[in-house]
Amino acid sequence: MSTAEATTRVPLILSDRINAMQESQTIAMAKKARAMAAEGVDVISLSFGEPDFQTPQYIKDAAKQALDEGYTFYTPVPGYLELRQAICDKFRRDNQLDYQPANIVVSTGAKQALANVVLSLVNPGDEVVVFSPYWVSYEEMVRLAEGVAVPLVGTLENEFKVTAAQLEAAITPRTRLIMYSSPCNPTGAVFSRQELAAIAEVVGRHPHVHVLADEIYEYINFVGEHVSLAQFEEVKERVITVNGFSKGYAMTGWRVGYLAARPEIAAACEKIQSQITSGTCSIAQRAALAALQGGRGSADEMVAAYRRRRDMVLDLVQDIPGFRTNVPSGAFYIFPDVSGYFGRATPAGPVIQTAADLALYLLHDAHVAAVDGSAFGAPNCIRFSTAAADEKLREAFIRIKDSLAKLG
Ligand SMILES: Cc1ncc(COP(=O)(O)O)c(C=O)c1O
């Protein structure tokens, strides 16, 4: 008997933990689009949250230099001291926040930083208030920690932003953590200073609650001011700020992110990381250091392009009846409410019942890949990434309009 045959006869029992976990919908849709493209279909993929820019040359050069200089050994678990120092300088320069290296943990992407925090703070049964629409992985991270995700839904009329009053009503004695991103993936909403001040006031009244502020899109901001919740003195100790290099420096594949937290929380995250992955890649850390030393100039150039594309896409979307959207203030997505199409029949017969049906219809009819909003806690919406070339975006929304016009 061959090994392959033997393997298929052994009953496989996966853990309850993994059976309960959903595959990332953004990655699932990207896979479908790739499979269609491999069959020769001209698919325009707007499903992935990835800058279409190359990493700036000076950062690539630093990586090459790191190899030549022999940065090939295990790294300290929380990251090279020099990089953590540069991250502290960045917090001081951009966010007026005073941290020391003991507050900082560098991780394999912001994703690992977020997971480290959730696993460090959440006990089974603890409630985690997740501002909704939310980034796909938040809910699964909470589930992995056996916590209970409590989505708190912002309305389209308020740019999908959760208000301080909503938050006050949602906090219970079991609430352990609050999670949100600003600028937000998927809505592009950016909390103002006033809104965060009101949220800080609520959190200040509940000393058992911590907040995980995901600021990975900090630099991709079209309104100007980025405010960190940790800037509010009354809550600073209980705010964990996560950021990284993937979006602002177009470094998705390098996998470097970081967090800033009080030293006990940073030490807890370091402990988890020491048992699961160790310190992140030596070469990528040296590249990240060069990125920070270069300031944010390259990010500003990319932001100008993202802004132009946002405006272009909003113009195109205005021409599509039944797409209701906010004006994103940051990040690179648009997130229209498409519920106006529910109940309409496709040319082949089946009726569109959900945003998932509509996303699949657009994939097969318009050959445009987007992600169903239910993955983000918003089942009436679809997320389109605007991180694609101008002509691709224009073509995609023309095709979408034509396909939607065929619905009965
Ligand atoms: C809101 C948000 N947080 C975190 C991440 C993860 O970033 P990284 O690539 O650094 O792991 C993403 C990536 O899409 C994101 O959109």
UniProtKB/TrEMBL annotation:
Its EC number is 2.6.1.-. The keyword Cytoplasm does not apply. Residues 42-396 form the Aminotransferase class I/classII large domain. InterPro entries: Aminotransferase_I/II_large (IPR004839), AspAT/PAT-like (IPR050596), NHTrfase_class1_PyrdxlP-BS (IPR004838), PyrdxlP-dep_Trfase (IPR015424), PyrdxlP-dep_Trfase_major (IPR015421), PyrdxlP-dep_Trfase_small (IPR015422). GO terms for molecular function: pyridoxal phosphate binding; transaminase activity. Its cofactor is pyridoxal 5'-phosphate. This is Aminotransferase. Belongs to the class-I pyridoxal-phosphate-dependent aminotransferase family. GO terms for biological process: amino acid metabolic process. It comes from the Bacteria. It comes from Hymenobacter rubripertinctus. Keywords: Aminotransferase, Pyridoxal phosphate, Transferase.
